[in-house]
Amino acid sequence: MALKRSSPGSGNGEADYLRLLPPELTSTLARLEFLARTKKEGSISGRHASPHKGFSVEFAEHREYAAGDDLRDLDWRVFGRSDRYYIKQYIEETNLRATLIVDASGSMRYTGDCATRLEGKALSKFEYARYMAAALTYLLIRQQDAAGLVTFDTAVRHYRPPASKPSQVRVILEELARTEPGQDTAAASVFHEIAERIPRRGLVLIFSDLFDDPARITEALHHFQFRYHEIVLFHLMAEEEITFPFNKFTDFRSLEIADQQLRVDPTALRSQYLERVRTFIDTIEKACGQMKADYVAVNTKNPLSQTLANYLSGRRESLTR
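^ thats the sequence. predicted structure below, dont judge the formating
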């Protein structure tokens, strides 16, 4: 699938959304694919296993013949051994329906001194998530799967149901390009709402720093599992949030609560902060492990193409095994 790139000076709208697919990302994606780990429901023939039995290529099981079944699907070898009629059933393949959920709350605005740069600009957590979501949208629709988009902060800001038509790439990228981080967050309650709005089982890709109560986040993730969705959680954090490298009195300003600022001595609270961060990350990662969800720790100091390539190639290897 090719996207027309605008030349300098040709319409800002087109340039705004196409900048989310820089050549270094699309060249990385050219040799990768996204395979489903669990069975999916879709509307067209594709590369992912369906929960429904059909008459495709991969054998699944036998069932007894019933009036009206196609005689061409009888297993004559089984008949020769048992003198009973059995139909051969196969695993149907289907297209994947993915919903990409992008956190657009205020904390995602954080950039940090160690953030990776793209086209000369240091990326905030939100910008990093936006590029990742754009790249995976492009990849999914290129392989004839369906992709949809949700952006949120304290509530759902935009919801676009999954579709597999090529124009869906532009629709999603344009929405990502015009979205800017808001203020506070309510990730857990938003996840519950989205779990109910997605009509059938599929893939849910979450891009967030998850700055909410981890117990409530875990409960909300279980809601996706209860609805038979496969979960991939890209947990984005900046290097400074993980290592807390500050060593002198520093002004810390809230990105979600207006006019809230504290001047503190980082050395006095470093050990307590790091312990809470470790507990927070361990809680989310353990919950994902229990649900057999993919937990992907994303440090925004790492190059985007490296993060995507490592995850997609690692996923393929695990599924191949």
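The chain has two domains: 16-39+95-320, 48-94.
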